Structures
1.
Amino acid sequence: MKPAIDVINVSKVYRRYARRRQFATLKSALLDGSLLGDLKPDETFQALRNVSFSVPKGCTYGVIGSNGSGKSTLLKCVAGITRPTEGEVKVDGRISALIELGAGFHPEISGRENIFINGIMLGLTKKEILRRFDEIVDFAEMQDFIDAPVKTYSSGMYMRLGFAVAIHVDPEVLLVDEVLAVGDQGFTHKCLDKFSEFRRRNKSILLVTHSLDLVEKFCDEAHWLDKGVSKGEGDPKRVVAAYVINVEDSEENELAKAESARVAAAASAPIEAPTEPGATTDASEEVPLKPVDEADGPKDGFKATEGRWGTREIEITQVTISGPDGETGHVFQSGDAVQVRMAVTAKEPTTDFVFGLGLFNADGVCVYGTNTSLEEFQPTAIAGDGVVTFDIDSLDLVEGTYRLDLAAHKVDGYPYDYHRLLYTFRIKSRIRDVGIYRPAHRWSFGGGITFKAE
Amino acid sequence: MFSSLAKLVRYRGLIQTLVVRDLKARYRGSVLGFFWSFFNPLMLLLIYTFVFTKVMVGMHSPDMEPYALFMFCGILPWTWFSSSLLEASNTLIAGGNLIKKVLFPAEVLPIVTVVANMVHFFLGLPILAAFILYYQRPVDPMELLWFPVIVLVQLVLTTGLALFLAALTVHFRDVKDLLGNLLTLWFFSTPIIYPMIEAPEDLRWWLNLNPMTHLMTSYQEVLFFTGPHGHAKWLLALGAGSIVVFLAGYFVFDRLRDSFAEEV
C-alpha cells in the first residue's frame, strides 16, 4: 500500500544573516552584484540533513528531539509550506497542518465569519463548512461567543476555535506541532479522542511534540531528530528511551562543565584564616553547616551563594558523586543508591575535626544536613591523606536539581575547608510528584475501589 | 508557472471571501461603516471643487469646466491604482503568519488587495455619476461601453505590478518607502490634475510612455470630454501590454515563492 507520507533524503538549508543585516537592502544587493546570489557556507544553516522515513496509512508517527533539532522544519516541509533544499516529500491525500492555530483569523470580525474564512483557507467549500458548522462550534465550546469579534476572545478560546476548524477539515493526513498544550485538561482529552477517532478511520497523524508520554502512549512509531540528523526510528518506547539517555548524557556534560568551572573559581579564591575562631559556637550546634565567622563566610548561611572558604588546615582535595553503577555522574534516577566521596588532606595531624554534608534544592531550601559530630562520631586522629564516603542507599528525592555543601571544620564550627553549593546533580523521575521529600511509600485499596492495571 | 496560473482559478472562492473580509473589517467599529466608501470620494470631490472654484480660479481654460469633475474622473481610478500598489507591497509581510504557518497560496494576498480597492473604486462611481448628472454633462452611452474595458485593462496591469512589488518587498523592505515617493512622482507625470493638451509639447512624448496616461485619458474621454473616444487604439495596445506585465509579474512572484516562508 502506498504510504501516506514519504520523506526521501530531505535536507533543508536556511540562510542566516551572519554578516548581513537582517533586512537586506536594494543597495547592498546591487553592490554585491546579485539579487539572489549563491550563499557562502557560513551564511547558511542546515536544519535537516538527509532525513528519510515513511508513514503508512493509519499510522500515528511521533517526532521527538530537543529544541532546534529540526522537528518543525520537517513538519513544514511535509506540509508544503517550505520546500526542502534537497530530497523529496510525497504526501497522499488532503493535509491539514495544526502548526499555528487560528493563523489567519481576523481580529475585527466575528468567530462565525472567521470559521468560514479559515475553513475556505484550509481548502473547504462553503457548503462543507455549513454542514460542519455546528460540530465545529460544539467542539470549540464556543456557542455563546460565536458572534463576538475574535479580538475579544481569550487566548484559550482563540486556540480552541482554531483547533476545531483545522480538525474538521477532515484531512487524510494530519500534521500536529505541539498544539495540545493549549486549552485545559478537558479540551486536551477531547483532542486526543479526536486523534483516536482519526486513527480508527485509517488516517495518518504526524505528531511533533516534547511530551514523551504522549509519544509512548499514542504513537505507533517514533522518530528522533538531533540537530537535523535522524538518530533513530521505530518502536516508540525504544526511541524515547534512547532519547532520554541522550538528554541525560548532555545534561551530565553540562553540569560537569559548570561544576568544574565553579570549583576552579572557588579554589583560586584567597585562603583566609578566620579572625576570631569559635565566636558563634552555639550556632553551629543548631545548624551544623552554618559558617562560623561572618567575616569569612556569607552573611546568611542559608543564602544560596556558592563559594569556598576556610583555613585549609584540612583540605578537601577532591569530591566525587557516583551512582548505583559506581561511575561518577551528575544525573541520577530518583531512588538510586548514591555515594558522595571526599578525598581530604590534613597538613598537621589534629584531633578536632568534623565532616559535614548539606543538600539543597534549586530554591535554596535545605533538604537535609548532617555532620559527623551530630551523629556522635568522636574524632580521634587525622593525619595526611584520607577518604570520607557518604552512602545514601536510596536517594528518594523528587525530580529537580540539587546542590551539595561539603565541609571539614572543627567541632566548634571553625572552618578548615568549606565548599558551599559547589556540587550539583540532577534527579530524574518518571513520576511527577512534588515537594522536597519522597518517603518510601505504597498505595493499597480496599473495598470497591479498583484501578486499571498498567 | 502556467500550472500555478491554472490553480488561480480554483482560488476564486478564497479571493472572494478574503475581499469581503477586508471590506467588512475595514470599517468595523466606525459609526458610518460602509458609508465611508461613499463619503471619502464625496469629500474629495467637494474639496477639489472648493479649491478650483474659489481659490485657484482661472488656472485652466474655460472649456475645461467643471474642473473638479474633470480631475475626479482621473483621481478616482488613480486612487484604486496607487492604494492597491502600496497595500500590495506590504501584504505578504502583513500576512506572514499565513505564509509561514498555513499552506496558503501567497499570490491570493496581493490579488485581494487589488480587488478590494477595485470595490472601493466602484463604490465611488455613484458619486461620480451623480455629479455628472448634476452638471448635466453629456455622456454618450455608446462610449460608456468602453468603460468596462478600461477597468479590465487597469485591473490586469495593477495586478501584474502588485504581484511583482509584493514579491520584491519580501526581499527588499526598501520597496515600500521607495514606492510611496515613486507614486507621487507618477501621479504628477500622469495627466490627472491637468489635461494632456495642456502638457508642454516637448514632454508629451514622454507622457505617452507612461501607461497610466492612456488609462486616465481614456477615463476622461469617456466620462468628461465630448466627442468620440479617440484613445481606443492606445487603450487596446495598453491592454496587450498589461497582459505581458501581468505574466511577467506572476513569473517573478512564482520564482520567488519558495523564499517567502523563510524571508517574511
2.
Amino acid sequence: MDFDLSDEQKLVADNVARLMKDKYGFEQRKTYAASASGFSEPLWRQYAELGLLGAPFAEEDGGYGGGAVEIMLTQEAFGRALALEPYFASVVLAGGALRHGATPEQRAALIPEIASGELRLALAHMEPQSGWNAFDVRTTAKKGAQDYVIDGEKGLVLNGDSAQKLIVLARVSGKQRDVDGLGLFLVDGDAPGVTRRGYATQDGRRAAEVTLAGALATPLGEPGRAGPAMARVIEDAIAALSAEAVGAMAEAVEMTTDYLKTRKQFGVAIGSFQALQHRAADMVVALEQARSMMYLAAMSSSDPDTAARARAMAAAKAQIGRSAKFIGQQATQLHGGIAMTHEYKLGHLFKRLTMIDMAYGDADHHLAKLGEGESLFD
Amino acid sequence: MDLGFSAEEIAFRAQVRDFVANNLPPAIREKLVGGHHPSKDDIVTWTRILANKGWGAPHWPVEWGGTGWDAIKLSIFTDEIQRGHAPESLAFGTSMVGPVIATFGTQAQKERFLPRILDLRDWWCQGFSEPGAGSDLAGLRTKAERDGDSWVINGQKTWTTLAQYADWIFVLARTDGNVKKQEGISFFLCDMKTPGVTVRPIQTIDGGHEVNEVFFDNVRIPAENLVGEVNKGWDYAKFLLSNERNGIARVGVSKARLAKVRRLASLAVYGDKPKMDDPVFRMKLAAAEVDLKALEMTQMRVIAASRTAPKGKPNPMSSVLKIKGSELQQTTTELLMDVVGPYALPYQPEQGDRWNEPSVGPDWASTIAPTYFNTRKVSIYGGSNEIQRNIIAKAILGL
C-alpha cells in the first residue's frame, strides 16, 4: 500500500500545476469565460501539447498509457483553478465511452484526434426524464439502409454546443429503463436532423439540449450491449469529479484560511476567534475525508469486481457530496459578504462544488443506494 | 500508487485473525460481543496469551519484546484485535509508560519495569488529569518535593482509569513553581501500595466503575523513580500523548460495532419487519459506513506518511483521526439505540456477570443504552475534540 506517484505521474501533476499557476489566475479565467466558446482555445492546444488529453488512453489506441491516476491529478488541478475547458466532457465522458464501448479500430481512429486536441466530443446520454438513472433512455436507434437513424431528446449534454461530434446513448431494443438494448452512436454535431440549443450553466460552463430527428449515426461497439460500458463511464466520471471537487475544496479551504489571517475586525484578525478556527478545522476534516475517497475512487475504477467497484464509487460520491456542501457553505460564511459577489473566486468554487454534488447522484441518492446493498466492509 | 495490501500483508491479517479466533477464550469474546466490559482477569488472561506468542507489545523496540513490524502491520494487528472482539492491551502500560521508559528511562528502570508490562504482571494507571487541570493539563498542581533520597508527592489526580486494579501509577507532578508552567513538571513512577496513596471510585453515568480519584498524601517514593531529568516531564508527556494518538481513530472498534448493528437490526423485529428493512435506518447505516471507509483511508494515508516522517514528532493529522474516529464511535452507538428502540429502558447492570435471571426484553438489549452513554467520553478524553480543533487550526492552518 502506498500513495506515491510514479515519475511520469509526478510530471503530469507538476506540468498541469505550473500551467494553472501561469495561465489560470481568476482574472485570466474571466477573459476565457467571456470568449465565444466559453473557454480558452489556446490553452486547449497546450493541454494537448503537454499530453494531458491523451494521457488516460492506452498506447495501442493512440494514447499515452496512463489511466485513472492521470485523470485524478489533472482534474484536481483543474478543480483548484476552476478550469473551463471541456476536458471532463471530451476526455473523461466521451473518451470513457470510447475506452469502454468502442471497437479497437474505432478507438484507434478517434483517440489520436482527441489526444492531439483536434477533436472535441460530447457525450449525450441523459434525457429530460432520466434523472440520475443512466439507463432511462427513450431515444431510439433504428437500423437504416447503411447507418442507424436516431430519434429523441438528449438533455444536459456538457459542452454539447461546441463539440464537433456527439456520442449518443440510444435504445435499439427493450423497455425505457432496461440495461439491455442500449447502444452508443457517433453523430456529427452538424448532421442533418441534429438541433442543439446551447446554454450557460450555473457554474460558468456550457451545455446543450440536443434534439435528434432522423439523424444518421455510426454505432460504437455492438448496438444493444452498451449498458455495462455506460456504467463504467459513469464510474470513471464520478472518480474524475471527485478529484475536481477535492481540488476546488482545497482551494476554498486555503482561500478561507488566508482570509481569516488577513481580514481584521474589532482590531484583530478574525482568525484569532475560536468559533471561526473551529469551523475552519471542521473544513479540514471534511476535506481530508473527501481526499481519501478521491484516492479510493481512482483506485477502484480498475477493480474487476463489478459490485465492489459500484459500492466504492457510490461511497466516494456520497462523501464528496457531503464534504463539498459543507466546505462550500462554510467557506462562504467565513468570508462573509465578499463571497456573495460575482467578482470574487470563492462563490464560483461554491457553485461548482454544488453542481458536482448534483451530477451523477447527490449524496443522499448514493447513500440510499448503498443502504439497499451489502456492507462496505467484509 | 497502490491502495491494496501486499500478499504478505494479506497473509499477516489472516494470521492475526486466525490467532484471535483460535486463542481468545470464548467466554471473553462473548462478553465483549455483548457490549460488556472485560474484567481485570479477562484482560490479564488475554494479554498473557498474546505475550506468549510474542505479541504483548508489538510496537516496542525488539530488544524489549517488540516485533519489528512496520506501521502497516501494526495497524492491521490493532484492527484485527478490535474487530475480533478481543480485549485491547492495557494502553497505560504498553502504549504510554512503556515507550516513555524505553526511550527516556535508565537501564535499571527498563529492566525492572518493561518485562512486567509486557505480560501484565504490573498493572499501570495514568496520573495526569486533576480537578483543576483537564484540557489545560500543564496547569497541574500535584507537587513533588525532593527530600534526601526521596521525592514526596502531595496532591490529587482524577479520571484515573482502572486505578482500582493498578499496581503502579505514573504521575506528572510540579517540581518547580517559579518557571513557565510547562517547564516545572517532572515524571514519576509510584507504587500504588506506597503509604499515603488512596483510590476513590467515581461511578459513571452508565453505572460502571471505570474511573477513580487518586489522592497523594505525603507519598514518599525513592529518587530512582524519577524518569529522565527533573523538570522535563512535559516533554515526556507530549511524547506519550503522541503515541497515544496512534490508533486513536479506533477504526476496528467501529467496524465491529457496525457489524453488530447489522446483526441486531436483522433480529430486532418491530411490527411485521426487522429494523434492517427500514430504508431511513439503512441510509443512516450507509452514511456511517461511508464515513468509516473514508476514515480508514485517511488513517492509511497518515500511516503511509509516517514511514518517511521524523520519529517522535506528532503529526497534526492525528487530530483529524481523533475527531472523526470519536464521532464515528458515537454514531455507531446511536445506531444501536435506533435498533433497540423502547427496550433501551430497563437498567440491568447484573446481566454482565452471568446473572441467572432472564433479562427484561431481548437478551442483547441491556448493554446498549449504557454503551451509548459511556461512549460520550471518547470526544472528551485524550484531548477533547475542541482541543483537537485548536491543534488543527494552529498546526495545519496556521491560525
